[in-house]
Design brief:
Number of helices: 15
Shape: globular
CATH topology of the largest domain: Nucleotidyltransferase, domain 5
Structural class: alpha+beta
C-alpha cells in the first residue's frame, strides 16, 4: 500500500488497513493500525452472498479494535467468488465471437487427457455453448496483414442476434489478433455500443499471445465470471459505504499482487487464484524475514489444500494454468481436465482436501476424502448446523486433535457426539473402530496433500527435502508435520495468526500489474528488443498511475523463452536494465539452466528463441510482515495448560497448550497447540518450540519410529 494509506487519521489519531480473505468455510479478517496494533477476526462464510460475511466480519473487527469507519484507510481483499462461479456453474450466459471457421476451437483445444486410461472421462462442457458461438467474416494473416476487414454492419446484425438470444456476456477472439489487436478491439467496442448491458471481453486485452485456443478460453472465462464479479464488487463497495467506510478497495490477483477493484472488474480472470496467492505472498515475506531460501508453502482451509514452492526467495509464476478440473495445475502434465487460462498466476497445486471435505467409502470398501465439501453451510456434522456427512473436521474431533468445545475463538461450537455419529457408518462399513476410521481418513488426506506438494517440487525437478515447510490456514497445522515427514522435510514453521495468514499476505503484498507483448523471434537485435521493452514499460507505468499509484513504481523485465519447435516456454527474468549482447547471453545461460532443472536436459544457443516480452510493474509495500506477527494481548496466555486424550495409533494423554506457553526450548510430542484461528498437531517423534518471531518450529527427532 502507499504511504498515504498509512498516514495518521486527523480525528482518531491512527489509521487502519483491513484485510479480508474469503474461504469456503471461514472468512478471515485482520486489521493492522499505523501504530502496529493487530486485530484478528474469523467468521463463517456466507455463500452465496459472500459480501455479507466480509461486512459482518468487518463490523466485528471494528468493534473489537474500537475502529471508527473513517479511520479505515484501505480494504484489501482476496476472494473465491470467481473460482466458485466456475466450479458451481453459475456464471453468465456467455457468447464467443470468432473468425469464420473457428467456431469449435473450444472443443478442439489441445489434445491432452488428464487420465489416459479412464475411458469414462469426458472433457468439461465449454462455458460458451456451441449455440452461443458466432462467426464474423474477417481474417488477419499471421504476419498481421488484413485479408478481410471487419464489417461494421455485420457486427451490428450480430449484436441484434445476441440480444434475441439473451446473451449476458460476450468474448471476442479473432484469429491472429495478437499481431493485429485493433480489429478485435473494434468488434468489442462496437458490441459494447450496441449492447451496453452486456459484459464484453477482447482476448488481446488479457492475453495478447499466440494460441487461439488459450486466448479464446481465457476470454470466455473472463466474460463468464465478469458479471458475477462486477455485481459482487459493487455490492461490497455499497455495503462498505453504507457503514461509513469510504476507503479504497484493492483485490489480490492470481499473480500475487494487489490491483484496484475497478481494474479487477475488467479482468476478473486474473483473480481466480486470489486467496491462495495471498497466502504464498505471506510465506514469501516470512521466508525473507527468517532468511529461508527454499520453502514449501502449504495452505489448508475448509475446502481445499494448496501447495506452492518458493525458491531463492521467489515464488514460481506460470503464464497458463487450468481451473475447474479437480486439481488446479499449471504444468503441462495432467492438463485437459479444466478450463485453460493464460494469465500470470503463482504456481499453486490445489486439491479438494480441506476441513470440510467429505469422507466416503466406495463399493470396494476403500475410503476417500473429498473433493466434495460440506463448506460452511451446513458444514461439518460437529458444527451442529444440520450437516450429517462425515468430514475431516469431524475425524479430527474424534481423534481429539480439535478442541471438543469450540473453535474460531469460541464463535463456532463443537459437538464431539455429532462428530462420532457421522464417522460411525464409515467405520462400520470398513469394520474398524470409530477412532481407526478417523485416523484412516487423516492418512488418506495426508496422501492426497503429499501429491500436491510433489506437483510443485519433485515434478519440477526440485527435491522437497531441501526445503522448509510453512504450514498455515485453519487446518494446515493439523497436517503439516505429517506431510513433512512423508516428504522427508525436516522443519515445519507454523506462523502467528496461521488461520488468517492469507489475510496477512494481503497486508504486505505489493500493488502489481503485468503486461505482455508477443515477440516470436530468435535472439535478435538488442536495440529492437530494448525499444519494445521500453514501450511496454511505459504502458505498465501509465496503467498503474491510472489505477491510483502515485509514485515509487518499479518494473521488472521478463522473457518467455523456449527451444525452437517446443510448445511450452519458461520465464526468464532479466537482471540488468540495459538490453545489450551481454544481457542476451546471460538470458540464454539462465534459460539453459532452468530448462535443465525443470526437464533434466538442455539444448544449444542456436535453438533458443524468444516468444513473449513481459513487464511487471509494482509499487513496493512499505509494511513488513513482522509488524503483523504479534500475539494478541502482548503474547500472554489466556488459559492454563491441560491434557486430553488424542489418538496416535492408540489413545495417548496429550498436553494441550497455547502458543504463548511455548519457549525456545523444544517440547516433545505428542502435543496440541491451540490458537484462536487454528490448531497445530505435534505428533509423537516430533518436537515444537517458539522462535523470536512467535513462530512455532516443529522438527522431527531421529527416532521417527516413535510415531508409528
Amino acid at each position: 500500500m502507499s504511504d498515504d494509506e498509512m498516514a495518521t487519521d486527523t480525528r482518531a489519531g491512527v489509521t487502519w488497513l483491513v484485510a479480508a480473505d474469503i474461504g469456503g468455510t471461514f472468512t478471515d479478517l485482520i486489521a493492522l493500525s499505523s501504530r502496529g496494533e493487530v486485530v484478528p477476526m474469523k467468521v463463517l462464510s456466507t455463500p452465496p452472498d459472500f459480501e455479507s460475511g466480509v461486512l459482518d466480519g468487518l463490523g466485528l473487527t471494528m468493534t473489537a479494535g474500537s475502529i471508527a469507519p473513517d479511520a479505515v484507510s484501505g480494504i484489501l481483499h482476496a476472494t473465491t467468488v470467481a473460482t466458485n462461479t466456475i466450479l458451481e456453474g453459475r456464471g453468465s450466459r456467455t457468447a464467443l465471437i470468432t473468425t469464420s471457421g473457428f467456431r469449435d476451437v473450444l472443443e478442439l483445444g489441445r489434445l491432452r487427457r488428464p487420465l489416459l486410461y479412464d475411458l469414462s472421462w469426458r472433457k468439461p462442457v465449454p462455458l460458451a455453448r456451441r449455440r452461443h458461438r458466432y462467426e464474423v467474416r474477417q481474417r488477419i494473416a499471421a504476419d498481421g496483414s488484413i485479408l478481410r476487414e471487419v464489417a461494421v454492419d455485420e457486427v451490428g446484425e450480430l449484436a441484434d442476434q445476441l440480444r434475441r438470444d439473451g446473451v449476458e456476456a460476450v468474448a471476442v477472439c479473432l484469429i491472429n489478433s495478437h499481431v493485429r489487436p485493433d480489429q478485435e478491439r473494434l468488434v468489442t467496442e462496437l458490441l459494447r455500443s450496441h449492447l451496453p448491458d452486456v459484459y464484453a471481453t477482447a482476448s488481446v486485452d488479457l492475453s495478447p499471445e499466440a494460441g487461439e485456443f488459450e486466448r479464446s478460453s481465457t476470454a470466455v472465462v473472463n466474460s463468464y465470471v465478469g458479471p458475477v464479479v462486477r455485481d459482487y464488487v459493487r455490492a461490497l463497495v455499497s455495503g462498505l459505504r453504507s457503514r461509513g467506510v469510504g476507503a479504497r478497495l484493492a483485490i489480490m490477483q492470481s499473480s500475487g499482487g494487489l490491483l484496484d477493484a475497478q481494474t479487477v472488474v475488467e479482468r476478473p480472470a486474473q483473480i481466480i487464484e486470489s486467496g491462495p496467492a495471498a497466502g504464498v505472498i505471506a510465506v514469501q515475506k516470512l521466508a525473507r524475514l527468517l532468511e529461508l531460501q527454499n520453502v514449501v508453502a502449504f495452505d489448508m482451509g475448509g475446502t481445499t489444500a494448496k501447495a506452492s514452492l518458493i525458491e531463492n526467495g521467489q515464488p514460481f509464476v506460470a503464464t497458463d494454468y487450468e481451473v475447474g478440473g479437480g486439481m488446479n495445475i499449471t504444468r503441462s502434465m495432467g492438463k485437459g481436465a479444466g478450463y485453460a487460462l493464460r494469465v500470470p498466476s503463482i504456481d499453486i497445486a490445489e486439491v479438494g482436501a480441506g476441513g470440510g471435505s467429505i469422507i466416503g467409502v466406495d463399493a470396494a470398501g476403500v475410503m476417500h476424502v473429498g473433493p466434495e465439501s460440506a463448506g460452511s453451510r451446513p458444514g461439518p456434522a460437529c458444527y451442529g448446523q444440520g450437516g450429517t456427512q462425515p468430514t475431516l473436521t469431524d475425524a479430527n474431533v474424534v481423534l481429539g486433535y480439535i478442541n471438543p468445545g469450540s473453535i474460531a475463538g469460541g464463535r463456532v461450537e463443537i459437538s464431539p457426539a455429532l462428530a462420532r455419529q457421522s464417522v460411525e457408518p464409515a467405520a462400520e462399513t470398513i469394520g474398524v473402530t470409530v477412532e481407526e476410521a478417523a485416523q484412516g481418513a487423516y492418512a488418506v488426506a495426508v496422501s492426497n496433500m503429499v501429491k500436491a506438494v510433489k506437483a510443485v517440487t519433485s515434478e519440477r525437478g526440485r527435491d522437497p527435502r531441501a526445503a522448509t515447510m510453512v504450514a498455515f490456514g485453519g487446518a494446515g497445522p493439523l497436517y503439516g508435520a505429517a506431510i513433512a515427514r512423508e516428504l522427508g522435510i525436516e522443519k515445519v514453521v507454523v506462523p502467528v495468526h496461521t488461520g488468517l495468514f492469507s489475510s496477512i499476505g494481503l497486508l504486505v503484498a505489493d500493488t502489481e500489474l503485468e503486461m505482455t507483448r508477443p515477440f516470436h523471434s530468435e535472439m535478435s537485435d538488442p536495440a529492437v528488443l530494448g525499444k519494445e521493452f521500453d514501450e511496454l514499460s511505459d504502458g505498465v507505468v501509465e496503467a498503474l498511475r491510472l489505477a491510483g499509484a502515485k509514485s515509487g513504481i518499479e518494473t521488472e523485465r521478463i522473457l518467455d523463452m523456449r527451444y525452437r519447435g517446443q510448445r511450452f516456454e519458461l520465464r526468464v527474468p532479466l537482471v540488468d536494465r540495459e538490453v545489450d549482447d551481454a544481457l542476451l547471453k546471460n538470458a540464454r545461460a539462465d534459460f539453459h539452466a532452468e530448462h535443465l532443472r525443470t526437464y533434466g536436459r538442455e539444448g544449444t544457443d542456436d535453438l533458443v528463441e524468444i516468444v513473449n516480452l513481459r513487464v511487471k510493474g509494482f509499487v513496493p509495500n512499505p509494511i513488513s510482515i513482522d509488524e503483523a506477527l504479534r500475539l494478541p494481548s502482548e503474547g500472554a496466555a489466556t488459559s492454563a495448560r491441560n491434557t486430553r486424550p488424542c489418538y496416535f495409533n492408540s489413545l495417548m494423554p496429550t498436553p494441550v497448550v497455547e502458543r504463548a506457553h511455548l519457549s525456545g526450548v523444544p517440547e516433545p510430542g505428542p502435543l496440541i497447540i491451540e490458537d484462536m484461528d487454528s490448531t497445530t498437531v505435534v505428533p509423537p517423534g516430533a518436537s515444537a518450540r517458539l522462535d523470536s518471531h512467535n513462530n512455532v518450529i516443529i522438527t522431527w527427532t531421529k527416532d521417527e519410529d516413535a510415531s508409528r
